Amino acid sequence: MVNSNLMLAKPEDLVLRLFKRREYLSSHCNQLWQIESGAVRTYTLTDDGTVIALGFWGEGDVIGQSLTRIQPYEMECLTDVQARVLHLNECDQLNQILFSHLHQAQELLRVRSGQIHHRFWQLLDWLADKFGHESERGQLIKLRLTHQDFADTLGTTRVTVTRLLGQFEREGRIGWVGQQLLLIRDS
Question: How much is the pTM?
Fold first, then answer.
């Protein structure tokens, strides 16, 4: 996670910009976004319209088109988001930001190979590490993803995701607290 005091920005850019769930952050040359609160998914599309998840980002993370050569590059808010504009030439921790993006890309590549139930569980475990909060029963993932969001990330179908979530719930591996997913800790 990148600490906000590591970034330099123009005074006019220090204003928090607010985005609603499912809105997109704008992409401009040499502009980055530092997330102050909320969660954002970055993704690209193949020629046939298939979504390929590039990352899931939260508080303190820095994202933007300038960090990749992938086109198109979309930044979709998964929750309400507060973010600040940063300019690429003002980032004094660019190497740290790039390593963060590289590590996340490697994690997402890892969950796209192997048997689907193992891949899905690896994704849930990774999301719990990044967005989870300890509760009495386990890790509560405070990020609401749709079945289609999971399917896009895993390279599978929404039907498969629904089936596997039901299987994990029957096995006592997951539960729900409202609309939030709970990874149940082994007793």
Answer: 0.83
